[in-house]
From TrEMBL:
Residues 81-107 are annotated as: Disordered. InterPro entries: Ribosomal_mS33. One of its GO terms (cellular component) is ribosome. Keywords: Mitochondrion, Ribonucleoprotein, Ribosomal protein. Residues 86-107 have a biased composition (Basic residues). This is Small ribosomal subunit protein mS33. PANTHER family: MITOCHONDRIAL RIBOSOMAL PROTEIN S33, SMALL RIBOSOMAL SUBUNIT PROTEIN MS33.
Length: 107
């Protein structure tokens, strides 16, 4: 054994034992392992804890559960009225099979 190889071999062995004792990753080549990112705290639970876990009950769900209350959804009623007005003007959705794609095939 020469003098120059003995200390490097002992130093690598010392580094390996040191990593085993202190729980570090032994990486003599210095290759990127992503260990720094994997040790970081996860962000997901913090974000979930920030927003309250409140389920909003919609009027449609209430009317399905209790139909004898005869509740009327004003937004849905307004939407249906607007839809019927558009159909009267000829601006509503086309009947099934009469849309733009079917007219392109006929040409």
């Amino acid at each position: 054994m020469s003098l120059s190889t003995a200390p490097t071999a002992k130093l690598t062995l010392l580094n390996k034992i040191s990593c085993a004792i202190f729980g570090n990753v032994y990486n003599p080549q210095g290759i990127r392992t992503g260990n720094k990112i994997l040790r970081q705290r996860l962000v997901g639970p913090t974000i979930n804890a920030y927003y309250p876990n409140v389920k909003q009950i919609k009027l449609r769900e209430i009317t399905r559960m209790v139909p004898e209350m005869n509740l009327v959804d004003q937004e849905e009623k307004l939407r249906l009225e607007d839809l019927s007005e558009r159909k009267k003007r000829g601006k509503g959705p086309p009947k099934k099979g009469q849309g733009r794609r079917s007219t392109l095939k006929k040409k």
